[in-house]
Amino acid sequence: MTGTPMTIIRSIVFNIAFYLNLIIQMIIFTPYYFLSARKNAWSVPKNWARSNHWLQKVLAGTDHVIEGIENIPDGPYICAPKHQSFWDAYAFLPQIADPVYILKRELMWIPLFGWYILKMKMVPIDRGKRSVAMKTAIRGAREAVSQGRQLMIYPEGTRTAPGAPPAYKYGVAHIYSELGVPVLPIAHVAGLYWPRRKFRRYPGTIRCRILPPIQPGLDAETFLKKLQDVTEAACDELLIEAARSKNPPPLPPTAIQRLKELGVMI
Q1: Separation between Cα atoms, residue 63 and residue 90, nearest integer Å
Q2: For residue 136, what is the DSSP state?
Q3: What are the domain boundaries of the chain?
Q4: Which segments of the protein form a coiled coil according to its record (predicted)?
C-alpha cells in the first residue's frame, strides 16, 4: 500500500539523496561546467536529471515513461509542459537540446545555483512588475529562438494539483503570437507521485505524453483554447490510467472530483 511506513522511509531517503546529489554534482562538475561552451555544459544538468530519475526509481520506487518523443520538432520551439510538481522542472531536460527558462529573478541570487543559471543565459523576470516582466520575457524569448533554442513555459504559471480545473494564462498565447514557432504540449500527472508541497514520493510509474506540436499561425485565442483542450484531454487519460493501475497512488480531492466528472468509478 502507498500509505505504509515504508513509503515514508523511502521518501525521506530519496529526498536526502536528491539534495545531496544536487550539491555534490554542482561541486564536482563546476570546473567543467563553467569552462565549457554552453551547449557542452548542458551535459551536467542533463546528467543530473537522469541521475534523479534513477534515484527516484531505486529509492522511492517511482519510474517514468515518456511517450511521443517522435513529436519533438527540430530547431526552436516553445515547450509547454503541465506543471504539477518540482519533478517536471527538470524531467524533460534530457529530451530538449538547448532549453531556456523564463524564471523569477530571485533564483539568480542563490549562490552557485544562480551562477549555474546565469551560465545558461536564462531569462530572469521581476514578477512584481507584470508589464515590464512580459516585455523582458518577449525580448529574451526572441533572442533564444534566434539562436535555435527551445523556450520552456508552464502555461498555468504555477503548480496545480492533478485533476484541478485548468487555469491557463494568456502570457503563453502572447509569446506564441510574437515568436511564430511551434508549441509542444506535454501532458502528465506527476503530481500524483510527487505531490506539490509534500515530502512523500509514491511508487508507481509517472506517465508523460508529448503531444503533436501546435504550429504557428493561429490567433491567440484559438491557440490558447487548443493548447488547453489537447493538454487537458491527455491529462484526463493519464489520470484514468493511474487511478486504474495495479497499485494506484493516493488520489487528491481534485483528482477524485475530476474522475467523477469523467464518469470514472474507482
Answers
A1: 15
A2: H
A3: 62-261
A4: none
pLDDT digit string, tens, across residues 121-179: 998 888 777 778 888 889 999 999 999 999 999 999 889 999 999 999 998 999 999 99
Q: How far apart are CA 25 and CA 146, in angstroms?
A: 31
Is the separation of the CB atoms in 42 and 98 below 8 Å? Answer: yes
In angstroms, the CA 80 to CA 85 distance is: 14
Residue 121: left if φ>0, alpha if ψ -120 to 50, beta else—which one? Answer: left
Strand partners, 125: 104
How many Å apart are CA 257 and CA 259, to the nearest integer?
Answer: 5
Closest by CA to 209, choosing from 193, 182, 183, 189, is: 189
Q: What single letter denotes the amino acid at residue 227?
A: L
Contact by Cβ (8 Å): 103, 116: no
Nearest in space to 30 (alpha carbons), one of 116, 104, 129: 116
DSSP secondary structure string, 42-77?
THHHHHHHHHHHHHIIIII-EEEEEE-GGGPPSS-E
Please list, residue by residue across 47-58, b when 16 or more beta carbons sit within 10 angstroms of its beta carbon and e when fewer do.
ebbebbbebbee
Global pTM value: 0.92
Kindly state the cell numbers that stand for 107.
533564483
Question: In this predicted model, what pLDDT tens digit does every residue of 1-54 receive, in sequence order?
Answer: 456 889 999 999 999 999 999 999 988 999 999 999 998 999 999 999 999 999
Q: Does domain 62-261 bear CATH number 3.40.50.11720?
A: no
